[in-house]
Amino acid sequence: MARGDGVNRTSARNMNMTAKDISNAQRHNEREKESYTNQDIVPDRTGMNVHFKTPTGGYAEMFEQMATDGVISTRGLKPDANLYGELIFDVNSAYFAKQFYTDAYKAAIKIVGGEQYILSAVMHADERNRAMSEALGRDVYHYHLHVVYVPVVEKQIKWSTRCKDKSLIGTVKETIMQVSSSKKWLSKPAVDDTGAPLLTKSGKPVLRKSYSVLQDDFHNAMRQAGYNDVERGERGSSEEHLTVTQFKVEQEQARLTELVERSDQKEQQAAALDKKIAKIQ
Predict the structure, then answer these.
(1) pTM
(2) Between vectors from CA 89 to CA 154 and to CA 142, what angle results, nearest 5°?
(3) pLDDT tens for residues 72-128?
(4) Is the model more confident about 59 or about 141?
(5) Can you tell me the distance from the alpha carbon of 157 to that of 262, in angstroms, rounded to the nearest whole number?
């Protein structure tokens, strides 16, 4: 199933989006545009895209309905708050199986906190990997999974001092699922092999960046699902700061570099073998 240099790496990214951003994400993910600036999108293959969760309406409309139904709470949010998140799961273009992204979606459900918070999950099969296509002399398509969701954290609302029943003050009044991107992606304390927290020289806890935690969670989930031939994405990467386009460009450039390096290595090996044969003769 796997092809290439023998090292297939998983990749997981998260992007935060405001109410202003979500319409463009919807048009891209659901292929609602009449034309695309991305020339690598092949409309004839759009029918091959796979929805693991099909949206029941527009992303914004679904969000509002969830708030109306009490599934999520928007209390205390600023007008420019990040209301949506988008997970993008990826693996080498040369490594593909529909079941991989089926299991990736299952991992997304756990990462998000429940399928009820997912608005759409679609695997794109209609984007051409230009660098690999040119290098190999045939069309290679970049399969990847978009999961748009609402980031929520559980929050307990307690009775305030204004409560008439003084016995209730400080007790839990209700528990809500608060929309909060910042709290959803808080950095977590790092621990050693024994589970003890890692500390700096000054005694402060070492924090694992939320992006690194996401990469670990996704890779571990795929390993548990039986994909033992994939490795975790590069540590210390700054991919979470890139736009989708920038990320794809860098990924394709890296893959092209790998192909060229392997080609050079094969040429060197062939030259060395020719010299050896000549010497023996």
Answers:
(1) 0.76
(2) 160
(3) 999 989 989 999 999 999 886 556 667 899 999 999 999 999 999 999 999 999 998
(4) 59
(5) 59
For residue 269, name the pLDDT band (cuts at 50, 70, 90).
low
Q: Are 32 and 104 in contact (CB under 8 A)?
A: no
Average pLDDT over residues 141-159: 93
Tell me the mean pLDDT in the region 151-179. Answer: 90
Whole-Å CA distances, 198 to 186, 190, 192, 194? 17, 6, 6, 10
Distances (CA, A) of 6 to 165, 212, 221, 237, 257: 67, 23, 20, 21, 15
Q: Which residue has the tokens 């429940």?
A: 114
Tokens linked to 182: 């910042």
For 151, the token pair is 């980031």
